[in-house]
Write a structure and sequence with these properties.
heterodimer; A: about 70 residues; SH3 type barrels; about 40% strand; B: about 625 residues; alpha/beta; Rossmann fold; 10 strands; about 65% helix; elongated
Amino acid sequence: MTLDSANKGQKIEIINIPDANIRVQAIRLGIYEGSKLICSEKLPAGPVILQNRMQEIAIGRNLARKIKVKLV
Amino acid sequence: MDCHNPITTIDVPENAKKIVLAGNPNVGKSVFFNYLTGLYVDVSNFPGTTIDISSGKFNNDVIMDTPGVYGVSSFNDEERVARDIILYADVILNIVDAVHLERDLFLTQQIIDMGKPVVVALNMMDDVKRNGLKIDIDLLSKELGVEVIPTTAIKGEGLDKVKEAISRARTGNRIKEIKEIIDKVKDNVDTESEALLLAEEDENIIARHNVKDFKGEREHIYKLRRNRVDKIVDKIITETNKDASFKIKLGRMMLKPITGIPILLAALYIMYKAIGVFVAQTVVGITEEIIMGEYYYNFIMNTVGKFFNDTTLIGQLLIGEFGLITMVPIYIFGLLLPLVVGFYFFLSLMEDSGYLPRIAALVDRALTTLGLNGRAIIPMILGFGCVTMATITTRLLGSKREKFIATMLLGLAIPCSAQLGVIMGLIAPLGLKAFIIYSATIFAVFVITGTLLNKLMPGESTDLLIDLPPLRLPKINNVLKKTYLKSVMFLKEATPLFIVGGLLITVLQYTGLLDSIASTLEPFTVGFLKLHPKVSQAFIMGIVRRDFGAAGLNDLASQGLLNGPQLIVSLVAITLFVPCIAAIMVIFKERSWQESALIYIGSFIISFLTAGILAQFIV
């Protein structure tokens, strides 16, 4: 599945981020292939918010469609 | 060794050590900086950016602040500036947000991998308890191999210990595999720190050292570092409870449209009340009309005015209607400065509280229809302060396409605070209906232009990926300091243009050229826009600066040459066409000349077309 179909409150593991440039920026914020995060919020048709402890990152819906994840 | 160091703006004595403060955005670096340096602080602007770097003395050494960054690299201007300062530092004081260790320690470990001597200040310790976390500080220190000092800088706790520890800064535990990679590429550059950035494929370091055919290992290194940081964090943090604090709840409310939009509207309403009503009317009423308009003006007329006859050219240039020592200082200090200060005060509040990135997430969906992502809200909001500076910040957008769209929209439909102030003053007496017609027209042009550009331009825009920092109560000292720095920057930029504008208009007027331009344009101004022929004079003024033009309209309105609807039409025209000369110059610098010319000419066409169409309906 892709990140945009994750629901609020679900815990997910990142499987694949296709874009290399996004990959290196995301890894600094703690998002990388294999990291486990909680989808803490989902704005209607807008960004998905991922949370790791106190850290929160907003990911645009289009980008979320390209990120492969699985539920854990 | 410093032959590649581009930091020449900061003066460092020969034997002094460079102590550099580094950390992620909003971790409280400036509190440390102020504590360590005391009163004597230099601020220097980094050429070609909107970034100011503070430096000061600490015993015999020099302390430098850096912009907040998530890592040392070249993804944006802040990072490039921070990178160059960190790269040539002797000692790093790394400020870390204790509740965001998985994010912040990435930078810490990167600095350690550079081989720099480091002291870590573990800041916001009060938040740690509040959020039910426990951190094993001794273990963190052991894992990193450098001293870690717990602090709550905002309350002054631990600052003295940090000050003492700086002399004990040491190199930490480097990641073994990364060290091996550094050793492999070291011969290409001068220092180990540069070698690390070379291995991390930093384009500027590669270019500066003229390294050819280099294959870096950025992703591999980042992954090693990420794994190491996550391992450390897992070892040292225990969570005692999971109740979300009020700040986290408020942060969520700012994101969700159902609560976020009302919060945003409320924030904008407060800003409008404070800047548009209190500053633009009450404060400016005192500064422009009484202090500058009466006391200052009378003083000039009674001193300088005695020596010059204002019917001569020199008299007109100095003390005439657009005189260098009459109109220029009266408008700049009486009218613009209070507005600009008010605006930057609010902007700094939004920045320091962590609200800005939440607005970006909230509006992301809406901005994607204009071919932008939520991040573009930052230059847009900044544009209400000063379009010139905002144009420079469009660099933080991810693609050429977004930069063009954002620059076009900024130049076209975002009035800057100075101009907004004059507009507010002109529109307020006309009533709510006039205000709605004006804002709706500008907003429609903004949306239509953005949507069309998004449809017509080739390529794809980048997506939002933004860190939502914790909400924090901004520190008033920092907010005031930022407001001050940005206002000074504005004065430096606006004053020369007002002088040029004043000179130009006076000469045009004195030689009668202004009247002949006005009469040439008459069929257009009178026929299509349905305005008084003299309005073209204000339009010409507006080419120099939009607010200068708006001030010209102010003049005409007070002479009774424009009625209500005509005033709205002229304001729409003047808002939409070209920003000031400074903005034009920056646009030409930032974008290619073809794109810039398109923006420049396009804004003229759109502005007069819109004003003309509006005139057919309302005048």
